[in-house]
Design goal:
Blueprint: E1 3-5, H1 9-19, H2 25-43, E2 49-55, E3 60-66, E4 72-77, H3 84-90, E5 98-103, E6 110-116, E7 125-129, E8 132-133, H4 137-148, E9 153-157, E10 160-161, H5 163-172, E11 178-180, E12 182-183, E13 186-187, E14 193-194, H6 200-205
Parallel strand pairs: 1-11, 4-5, 4-7, 7-9, 8-10, 9-11, 10-12
Antiparallel strand pairs: 2-3, 5-6, 13-14
Helix pairs in contact: 1-2, 2-3
The protein binds 1-O-pyrophosphono-5-O-phosphono-alpha-D-ribofuranose and uracil (URA).
Residues 79, 132, 134, 192-193, 196, 199-201 line the site of uracil.
Length: 208
């Protein structure tokens, strides 16, 4: 499945400020929350809908609604948490599952340390949230555990992706569409995205 780059100027302007090394955590958090809404808006475009009817003060009107209710949000901790509150403004009834993964500094392999998913997650559409898609190891692992839980309809929403990450997710999970604001050049020797924006978790939470 391909990577959709959301090229709206509003998204790209916020990405510019998020990339800027001078942007402090307070602004970084606000920008990530806002841009996540715009990315989710694109990712939700082709979610299954069903027809229904609503009664206006004047009379009946045809309407649409999500076929499976509002999608479940699943942030990958820590940095994915920075995308949740903005998207919850858009989808206030969405349940939120959590997956805790960190990259081992030496091997760059993901290590799982937490998992909590809604009981009915298999019957729902899921937005998997992580601003950074670098080697793709974390996203591939998270998608694997969501599928093991029975989830069939998943969209991956990130902010910045590397070609290596897009290829890894495309190979392991070809059914999962990916959305993001940028597809960057490559990974450096520490598996950081170039030019990227640095360590998203550290920039969000001031742990640099
Ligand atoms: C970052 C980021 C992704 C992962 C991406 O998390 O938020 O989860 O790295 O890298 P990958 O595609 O190579 O797996 P990190 O492991 O730094 O954990 P943190 O969010 O807790 O800082
Ligand atoms: N994780 C990050 O936070 N940034 C990168 O560039 C790569 C992985």
């Amino acid at each position: 499945m391909e990577f959709t780059r959301v090229d709206h100027p509003l998204v790209q302007d916020k990405l510019r400020m998020l990339r800027d090394a001078k942007t402090p955590p307070k602004e970084f958090r606000a920008l990530l929350a806002d841009v996540s809404v715009l990315l989710a808006y694109e990712a939700l475009r082709d979610l299954p809908w069903e027809r229904t009817e609503v009664t206006t003060p004047i009379g009946p009107a045809e309407a649409l609604r999500f076929a499976h209710g509002q999608p479940v949000l699943v942030p990958i901790l820590r940095a994915g948490l920075g995308m949740v509150d903005g998207i919850l403004r858009l989808l206030p009834e969405a349940a939120v599952g959590h997956v805790g993964l960190y990259r081992d500094h030496a091997t760059h392999q993901p290590v799982e340390y937490y998992r909590n998913l809604p009981a009915d997650v298999a019957a729902r559409d899921v937005l998997l949230l992580d601003p950074m898609l670098a080697t793709g190891g974390s996203a591939v692992a998270a998608l694997g555990l969501l599928k093991a839980a029975g989830v069939r309809s998943i969209r991956l929403v990130c902010l910045v992706a590397a070609p290596e990450g897009v290829a890894a997710v495309g190979k392991a999970h070809p059914d999962v569409p990916m959305f993001g604001a940028a597809l960057d050049s490559h990974l450096n020797q520490d598996a950081y995205i170039v030019p990227g924006l640095g360590d998203a978790g550290d920039r969000l939470y001031g742990t640099l």
